[in-house]
Design a protein that fits this description.
heterodimer, A: Rossmann fold, four-stranded parallel β-sheet, two-stranded antiparallel ribbon, B: alpha/beta, Rossmann fold, seven-stranded mixed β-sheet, six-stranded mixed β-sheet, about 40% helix, binds thiamine diphosphate, binds iron/sulfur cluster, binds magnesium ion
């Protein structure tokens, strides 16, 4: 059954955090967890979502969740997946939520390694098109022409002069089982793509492939215009 | 028990087979590579039932081991030199997260210049990363430390990761006869890993979080206490070990003819054997020479060292390390202990073996004679220093 606003799980798994009002990233994490359910084990690297959600003693995940190193989302997911499996636990979902910087830049090596190993993990990149947690610096997914604090638009530097890395094609070139893009602007589509990931038989019945991977380019620019400047910097 | 002719690396891998970690994630680097190769073979021939994860870097090796540890299972990794430095961020992360991971580090020089041979600058540069640090002297001790490290690291009051250091090539690649315990003995010594510092579906946790100035300090203090608690747990582990396996170890330090010694060399790792031989030779000429081998750099044996050297005429710290612009780091640690315990024994530093340069018996004889005559505070073995 398709996930819709009507049948979406009423439980909350990500709340009480200090993301900016209207934050697209936190909306994605919140709703993805509603689809993945209470047995989702979430890994979040340094970045906005971990900065707003894990400030001891105010810890904002109702499911299991852990911060990884900035570069280490995928490798930590691998370890968690292997560890749970060794404990004989099968009804869990290891899921990563990393920013564009944590995915396309510093975390790309570990991500590539995890895809190469065909690990049974879900990886969701929330792409807000810059290093937001540190105050809007250019990442590999900052679009052409964008003004950031490290690509000022002036007489000599004219904003970011490079196009976004084509992260979807980079991932697809690994011969991955499943990759998709989505945006929280089209919530039903987003939720149903997460649902596809969650119940692999839906897509992979005939192929017998169990690897899951979601590359989600969230077109969030219009949603996060009010950039958070005051949240904690790490 | 069986006897086998093994290199240090192989002996360590045999130890890990007995430990049975659930997850092994490691990346190859000389002179550690043999460990990961042997472990892969053991997984292949099913004599070891572990997940061997082919990570793409050392950073991922330790990050993956942390994931496994957070999932509640026993994890192992191994590295050396550039690899250790590459994973440095994760070293602090693992100790802060109180993940009792064990890592074997093959002590190797750090670039530049590139060099694959042994010195101890790699691990000594990470003394502050919150890991227990042990230094093995021979292949047997390497195997035994593989077993003991998990016992110590996993003790609840310790909950601290453990780095076992083996001198690159001199120990990792040198063959010795090694006594291999049976799996039954190993299982009696090392129980299955149980922890509540884990992600749990029935009792969900948020782990590896942020803590502001108010709380952060307390977490760090607790980390310090965990490391301090290792001291008595090391003793407990060695006692149990000797009861089961019959081999005795002497805690944070190991001493040789120090009871009446006037001149004591303090060192760590495989060079201690040559120091003992030299001490014996000098003793034949009536020279009262002794050797103190540091087995654990963290927790640091300040009291143990000062207790041994307090009646000596002088001590020399021989180390394969330098903290540029200062002196050898082991020397700094020893001096701090002498000062803290108010022991007024002159101390000298002898730096050598960097990049694997040989330290000969005559170099060590020279150290003993220099200690007697008095010399510079910091001395470089085999380098003529122009005045
Ligand atoms: C190794 C390392 N380098 C740098 C940082 C600082 N840092 C923390 S979050 C961040 C930016 C994160 O950007 P992104 O992944 O796009 O996530 P966002 O904050 O935009 O959600 C940076 C540079 C860090 N924590 N670790
Ligand atoms: S800066 Fe952007 S991603 Fe970060 S909390 Fe605010 S809206 Fe969300
Ligand atoms: Mg971003």
């Amino acid at each position: 059954m398709a996930v819709t606003a009507k049948n979406l799980c009423k439980d909350e798994f990500f709340y009480g955090h200090k993301a900016c009002a209207g934050c697209g990233g936190s909306l994605a994490v919140r709703n993805a967890l509603k689809v993945l359910g209470k047995n989702a084990v979430a890994v979040l690297p340094a970045g906005c979502m971990s900065a707003v959600g894990f400030n001891f003693p105010q810890l904002c995940f109702a499911n299991n969740a852990i911060i990884s190193t900035f570069a280490g989302t995928s490798s930590m997911l691998t370890g968690i997946e292997a560890g749970f499996r060794r404990r004989g636990i099968t009804d869990f979902t290891a899921v990563g939520f990393a920013g564009d910087g944590g995915t396309a830049d510093i975390g790309i090596q570990a991500l590539s390694g995890a895809i190469d190993r065909n690990d049974n993990i879900i990886y969701i990149c929330y792409d807000n098109e810059a290093y937001m947690n540190t105050g809007i610096q250019k990442s590999g997914l900052t679009p052409f022409g964008a003004k950031t604090t490290t690509t000022p638009a002036g007489e000599n530097i004219r904003g970011n002069i490079r196009p976004k890395k084509n992260m979807f094609e980079i991932v697809a070139a690994h011969d991955i089982s499943y990759a998709a893009t989505a945006t929280v602007g089209y919530m039903t589509d987003f939720l149903n793509k997460i649902e596809m990931l969650h119940i692999p038989e839906k897509i992979f019945m005939r192929l017998h492939l169990l690897l899951l991977f979601l590359m989600m380019v969230l077109l969030m620019r219009t949603l996060s215009l009010k950039m958070r400047k005051t949240a904690s910097k790490r | 028990m069986a006897k086998k002719f093994l290199s240090g690396d192989e002996a360590f891998a045999e130890g890990i087979r007995l430990v049975r970690p659930e997850v092994i994630s490691a990346y190859p680097i000389t002179p550690q590579t043999i460990v990961v190769e042997r472990l892969s073979e053991m997984v292949e021939d099913k004599s070891l039932d572990s997940e061997f994860i082919h990570v793409e870097s050392e950073h991922s090796a330790l990050s993956c081991a942390m994931g496994a540890s957070a999932a509640g299972v026993r994890a192992f990794t191994a590295t050396s030199s550039q690899g250790l430095l590459y994973m440095a961020e994760c070293l602090y992360y693992a100790s802060g997260g109180r993940f009792p991971i064990v890592m074997m580090n093959a002590n190797r020089s750090t670039a530049l210049p590139w060099n694959i041979y042994g010195d101890q600058r790699d691990s000594l540069s990470q003394l502050d990363s919150g890991w227990i640090q042990a230094y093995a002297e021979n292949a047997q001790e390497s195997l035994d430390l593989a077993l003991m490290s998990y016992y110590i690291a996993e003790k609840r009051e310790v909950s601290t990761p453990f780095m076992v250091n083996l001198d690159g090539f001199i120990l990792t690649h040198t063959y010795e006869e090694v006594d291999i315990p049976t799996q039954d003995q190993a299982d009696i010594f090392l129980p299955k890993y149980e922890t509540d510092n884990k992600l749990d579906l029935d009792n969900p946790k948020n782990m590896a979080f942020s803590a502001g100035p108010e709380h952060n300090y307390i977490f760090k203090y607790k980390e310090h206490i965990g490391m301090k608690n290792a001291v008595s747990v090391i003793g407990e582990a060695e006692k149990k070990f000797s009861e089961i396996f019959g081999r005795k170890y002497s805690g944070l330090i190991d001493t040789y003819k120090t009871e009446d010694a006037d001149y004591i060399i303090i060192t760590l790792g495989s060079i201690a054997g040559l120091c003992r031989e030299t001490a014996d030779k000098l003793r034949k000429n009536g020279n009262r020479a002794g050797v103190l081998r540091i087995r654990y750099m963290r927790p640091f044996p300040a009291k143990e060292i000062t207790e041994i050297v307090k009646n000596a005429k002088s001590v020399a710290v021989l180390e394969k390390d330098i903290s540029f612009g200062n002196e050898g780091t082991v020397f700094t640690n020893v001096n701090s202990a002498l000062h803290t315990e108010k022991i007024n024994v002159p101390s000298y530093n002898f730096i050598g073996g960097l990049g694997g340069r040989n330290i000969s018996a005559s170099d060590i004889e020279h150290i003993y004679s220099a200690m007697e005559k008095g010399t510079e505070k910091v001395n470089f073995i085999g380098i003529e220093v122009e005045e």
